[in-house]
Structure formats: structure tokens, C-alpha cells
């Protein structure tokens, strides 16, 4: 399904201009017009999928295979020192466009890109309880 008023539905389906680097029947891969670094790339499904909770495992598998290939190409071309894969789900997580998309952000020494958080202090008992709860729900 495509939502007419969705920015990324329009980009992914060629209804808006983009710097496209790859396209198939399922995804469009574009350079981010507001990049964090040189080569910052977005992988956008053509179907409207709001977030990871709506993404089926088969599509996720194909998406990550594509992301792996593109990451290697970016590394080869730009000789980046690292790469972040970023995907936000929900407003609390920083999602601003509510159409699933995956960021590939090449990283360079001293590039001034920041991805940082304060860590929580948890003891082994708390971690084991959480691990158990998650595990029994898989």
C-alpha cells in the first residue's frame, strides 16, 4: 500500500525528486538530502510501512542484505573509517518521518557526527530477569 500524503512513499515510488543510487521492485536507495556525512544513504521500502513493528521478516531479510551490499560499496568508494546503521521507531526514538527507512551513515575520524547516550546502571539480577522475560516471549 502507498499513502499519497507520505513523503517517503512519494520519494520511494519516484513521485518526488531524489538522488537515487539503486531501485528494485521493493526498495529505493537514495542519498540523504540532509546528510550527516559524505555518502549518507537511505534505504526506503516502496510499500508504506510505518516502523519496524510492521516490517515482515522476509522483507527485513532482503533489506538487510541490500544494506550489507551498499555498506561495502560505500566503504570501497569513500574509504570511511566506520559506518552506523540507524533506524528510529516512534517519536520517542527520534522518528520524524513515519515511513520505515534505514540510514547508512559512513563515519570518518573527527567527523563531528554524534550518536551518544547515558548508560543505565543495572546489576546482574536485573539483567537476568529481563533476559528471562524477553526469552520466554520469543
Q: Which strands sit side by side, in order, in the main sheet?
A: 1-2-3-5-4
CATH topology: HIT family, subunit A
Termini gap: 28 Å
Mean pLDDT value: 96
Helical residue percent? 25-40%
Secondary structure class reads: alpha+beta
Strand content: 15-25%
- The rough form would be described as globular
What's the helix-strand series? HEEEHEEH
Counting H and I runs of at least 4 residues, what is the number of helices?
3
Number of strands: 5
**What is the count of distinct domains?**
1
Spans with pLDDT under 50 lasting ≥5 residues?
none
CATH class descriptor: Alpha Beta
Largest sheet: 5 strands, antiparallel
- Structural Rg: 17 Å
Relevant CATH superfamily: HIT-like
CATH architecture verdict: 2-Layer Sandwich
Active site: 101 (tele-amp-histidine intermediate)
Protein name: HIT family protein
Domain HIT: 7-114
InterPro entries: Histidine_triad_CS, Histidine_triad_HIT, HIT-like, HIT-like_sf
Describe the structure.
The radius of gyration is 17 Å and the shape is globular. A hairpin with a 3-residue loop joins strand 1 and strand 2 (27-31). The chain has one domain: HIT-like (HIT family, subunit A, 2-Layer Sandwich), CATH 3.30.428. It starts with 6 loop residues before the first helix and ends with a helix. It is of the alpha+beta class and 138 residues long. A five-stranded antiparallel beta sheet has the order 1-2-3-5-4. It has three helices and five strands, in the order H-E-E-E-H-E-E-H. The mean pLDDT is 96. The chain has helices at residues 7-12, 57-78, 124-136, and strands at residues 20-23, 27-31, 41-45, 82-86, 102-107. The active site is at residue 101. It comes from Vallitalea pronyensis. A motif (Histidine triad motif) lies at residues 99-103. Residues 7-114 form the HIT domain. This is HIT family protein.
Amino acid at each position: 500500500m502507498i499513502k499519497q500524503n507520505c513523503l517517503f512513499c512519494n520519494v520511494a515510488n519516484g513521485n518526488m525528486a531524489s538522488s537515487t543510487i539503486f531501485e528494485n521492485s521493493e526498495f529505493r536507495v537514495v542519498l540523504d538530502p540532509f546528510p550527516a556525512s559524505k555518502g549518507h544513504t537511505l534505504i526506503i521500502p516502496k510499500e508504506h510501512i510505518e516502523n519496524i513493528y510492521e516490517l515482515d521478516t522476509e522483507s527485513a531479510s532482503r533489506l538487510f542484505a541490500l544494506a550489507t551490499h551498499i555498506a561495502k560499496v560505500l566503504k570501497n568508494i569513500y574509504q570511511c573509517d566506520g559506518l552506523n546503521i540507524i533506524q528510529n521507531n516512534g517519536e520517542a526514538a527520534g522518528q520524524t518521518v513515519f515511513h520505515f527507512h534505514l540510514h547508512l551513515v559512513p563515519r570518518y575520524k573527527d567527523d563531528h557526527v554524534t550518536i551518544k547516550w547515558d548508560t543505565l546502571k543495572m546489576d546482574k539480577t536485573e539483567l537476568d530477569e529481563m533476559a528471562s522475560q524477553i526469552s520466554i516471549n520469543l
